[in-house]
Structure formats: structure tokens, C-alpha cells
Design goal:
Elements lengths: L2 E5 L2 E4 L4 E8 L6 E8 L6 E6 L6 E3 L7 E6 L4 E6 L8 E9 L15 E2 L3 E6 L1
Parallel strand pairs: 2-11
Antiparallel strand pairs: 1-3, 3-8, 4-5, 4-9, 5-6, 7-8, 9-10, 9-11
């Protein structure tokens, strides 16, 4: 089992920044790819970003490319999502998720691929 706990959400004005963290425990963090997803009210969950087990590969949704940066510190068992130039449409509950390495990279953009999920952290961007 892997336990994931997100933190760092909050209320921020449009144009501002937030840094989300995802603290992992239970298994070897560096064996897992990590993804970030979000779900806005009355909308489906959507992919935001993913990082490979060693940080060597990253991928982003077009809507956040150039504004968000995913990273990880395997020594600290923690992943991050730096969010800059926030917009009102970024308002959502943000979830981190992990999947044991070895799966097709493109499949990591699909939520169903992931084995473990955090409880989510609310991000609200006021315009």
C-alpha cells in the first residue's frame, strides 16, 4: 500500500502562485510514477501533469503547459506541483496519484492507470 497526502492548496488571486506537495509513505517512493489530476465542480477529473519514477520524464496538459511544473524529491518521498500564473479556471480539487513504474508512459495521462490516490487539496483562484 502507498499512502499519499496532498497539501498546499488554498485561496489565491488570479496571477498568483501556489505549490502543492504530495507526501508518500508505505512503499519505495522512487518505484512509482506520480501524477497530478484535478476535478472542478460538476466536471470530470482531468489530467494535469505526470513525472516518471526518477524525474527524467514529465508531461503536462496543454492547459497548464508553461505555467505549472511537476517535480519530485525521492529522498524526501515527496512530489510537487508548482503552479504559477493561476487562472480562475484552475479552481479545482487537486489530487496526486502514483503508479508502479513499468507501464506505458502515455497511459499515465489516464486516471484509471493509477493504483493509489491522495484525498485531494482545494485550490481556489479568485478573479
Amino acid at each position: 500500500q502507498v499512502q499519499l497526502v496532498e497539501s498546499g492548496g488554498g485561496l489565491v488571486q488570479a496571477g498568483g502562485s501556489l505549490r502543492l506537495s504530495c507526501a508518500a509513505s508505505g512503499r519505495t517512493f522512487s518505484d512509482y510514477a506520480m501524477g497530478w489530476f484535478r476535478q472542478a465542480p460538476e466536471k470530470e477529473r482531468e489530467f494535469v501533469a505526470v513525472i516518471s519514477w526518477n524525474g527524467g520524464m514529465t508531461s503536462y496538459a496543454d492547459s497548464v503547459k508553461g505555467r505549472f511544473t511537476i517535480s519530485r524529491d525521492n529522498a524526501k518521498n515527496t512530489g510537487y506541483l508548482q503552479m504559477n500564473s493561476l487562472r480562475s479556471e484552475d479552481t479545482a480539487v487537486y489530487y496526486c496519484a502514483s503508479k508502479l513504474r513499468g507501464v506505458n508512459w502515455l497511459s499515465l495521462k489516464q486516471g484509471v492507470t493509477y493504483e493509489y490516490w491522495g484525498q485531494g487539496t482545494q485550490v481556489t483562484v479568485s478573479s
